[in-house]
């Protein structure tokens, strides 16, 4: 487990994360006041992933939901897709970049002495799923529907389990990833998509890829 030093240092990290979250909440509103030409251009429309049968969630996700029930709360009344505007797209790109720059990458084994643990990187460090969970928390606080932001398990370029955040939008499914600041269509990532949180129940669905990894312990 990696310690955070003195209590003063930990407090500073927590204050910094709160400030980052507050900045995100105000970002979309501020962006709406800018002209379209000052924002990132909207991405091309692509074909989204096709969910399949029910799938067993990662064990660490189940434990995460027990510790952070609000982060796993499910509301079928929310939109199932994000209606992208230039302001919203700019916010998504900004949050992905900010979290990738702010959080220190470290495996759960080195951090906590266990293969896989999901949290919100409260101490300023974490691995792949922690990056994505924090991004989702920030984007949800800024007004995006949590139902359209689904944690997703993939096999990465190294053949290892990895977690990304899928944004289901009216222009296709786009991926937020701690390995890149680019927000790209799912089919351009090079990953094999295994399963993700469902949109119609508190459950996971298969995405038709290979056998599921047991953990997502990739930095």
TrEMBL record:
Signal peptide per UniProt: 1-33
Pfam families in the cross-refs: Peptidase_C93
Keyword Disulfide bond: no
Keywords assigned by UniProt, alphabetized: Signal
Domain of life: Bacteria
UniProt xrefs under PANTHER family: BLR5470 PROTEIN (PTHR39327:SF1), PTHR39327
Protein name from the UniProt record: Bacterial transglutaminase-like cysteine peptidase
């Amino acid at each position: 487990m990696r310690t955070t030093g003195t209590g003063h240092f930990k407090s500073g990290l927590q204050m910094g994360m709160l400030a980052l979250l507050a900045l995100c909440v105000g970002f979309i509103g501020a962006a709406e006041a800018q002209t379209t030409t000052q924002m990132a251009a909207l991405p091309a429309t692509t074909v989204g992933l096709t969910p399949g049968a029910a799938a067993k969630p990662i064990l660490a996700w189940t434990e995460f939901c027990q510790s952070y029930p609000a982060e796993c709360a499910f509301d079928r009344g929310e939109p199932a897709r994000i209606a992208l505007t230039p302001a919203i797209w700019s916010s998504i790109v900004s949050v992905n970049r900010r979290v990738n720059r702010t959080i220190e990458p470290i495996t759960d084994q080195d951090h906590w002495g266990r293969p896989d643990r999901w949290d919100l990187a409260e101490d300023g460090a974490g691995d792949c799923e922690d990056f994505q969970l924090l991004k989702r928390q920030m984007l949800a606080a800024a007004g995006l529907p949590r139902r359209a932001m689904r944690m997703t398990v993939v096999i990465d370029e190294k053949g290892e389990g990895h977690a990304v955040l899928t944004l289901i939008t009216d222009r296709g499914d786009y991926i937020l990833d701690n390995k890149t600041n680019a927000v790209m269509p799912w089919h351009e990532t090079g990953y094999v998509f295994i399963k993700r949180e469902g949109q119609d129940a508190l459950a996971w669905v298969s995405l038709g890829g290979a056998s599921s990894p047991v953990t997502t312990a990739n930095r």
